[in-house]
Design goal:
The chain is α/β, with parallel strands linked by helices. The protein has eleven helices and eleven strands. One of its GO terms (molecular function) is hydrolase activity.
Length: 282
């Protein structure tokens, strides 16, 4: 059996806000996907931003750590950020494979000597478009199965602006140079994406509603009513992908986003190429 530690990147207030539009926390979303991809896995959830958080299972007894997205900002610092950096650092130094999306990438890059901050090229809301491999990403197992260019769910203002020394930037697009990255620290390896391979379109829609003001301020929608109509279309497409091909066409949603097995490639690749080989060696 695999034992996977799933760390929710949000603080208590962030988790409560998330639950106003989703029926589960970010950590619960990840746990559900991980157990679908690896039926032999048991997920142990923790909220390391909280001062009273206690690991449900020792790092030495876990096979991997996964860090979710968050509404926090690494550059603002503070105890909630520091505690998460400390957990990821401890996991990597203990030799654990670590995966993170969005916030997870920003935390890993920061603790390894890089910089995460507001993206000067602007935010990505809904989908990150036309992602492609860098030279370092060609043939990298994190991106196994991806076509030459792909779209992916994305919700972020912040991003990795300066990757840490010695890291390998694996993919980018015209909005952001660091869409996927490998970071090595101690005996551990971090793989992550700025985009969200874990999010279904209904969850993307819910998170867009939370970000409505930011979407309008970024000039991506003329007003919040238009944003909610866009989110409604995403939600409806999620619930009826075969019957609402008109919505897929109108939203520009391809199979790389619409088909769960394709959307979640990076998570499966992490399990297959980093986590399972390590457990077989143990």
């Amino acid at each position: 059996m695999l034992h996977l530690l799933v760390a929710d990147g949000n603080d208590r207030a962030g988790r409560e806000t998330h639950l106003t539009v989703c029926d589960k926390t970010s950590a619960e979303t990840y746990a559900g996907i991980l157990t679908k991809l690896a039926p032999d896995a048991r997920c142990h959830l923790v909220a390391p931003a909280d001062a009273d958080a206690v690991l449900p299972r020792a790092l030495s007894e876990c096979d991997a750590l996964v860090l979710t997205g968050s509404i926090l900002h690494v550059e603002e610092g503070g105890p909630a950020v520091t505690r998460q950096c400390d957990l990821v650092r401890a996991a990597l130094e203990a030799g654990l494979p670590v995966f993170g999306s969005c916030w997870g990438v920003q935390v890993a890059a920061t603790l390894a000597g890089g910089r995460a901050a507001r993206n000067p090229r602007g935010p990505e809301y809904g989908l990150a478009r036309a992602i492609s491999r860098t030279e370092a990403g060609a043939g990298h197992p994190l991106l196994d199965g991806r076509p030459p260019a792909w779209d992916a769910p994305a919700i972020h203002d912040d991003a990795v602006i300066a990757p840490p020394p010695g890291s390998r930037v694996l993919a980018g697009n015209d909005r952001l140079d660091v869409q996927a990255i490998e970071i090595r620290l101690g005996d551990g390896v971090f793989w992550g994406t700025q985009y969200h391979p874990e999010l279904d379109l209904d969850e993307v829609a819910a998170m867009l509603r939370l970000s409505a003001q930011g979407v309008v301020e970024a000039g991506l929608c003329p007003d919040e009513a238009s944003l909610h109509a866009y989110a409604d279309a995403m939600r409806d497409l999620h619930h009826d992908p075969e019957g609402r091909r008109d919505l897929a066409w109108g939203l520009g949603v391809t199979a790389e986003v619409l088909v769960p097995e394709r959307r979640r490639r990076e998570i499966r690749n992490f399990l297959d190429h980093l986590v399972r080989p390590r457990t077989r060696r143990a």
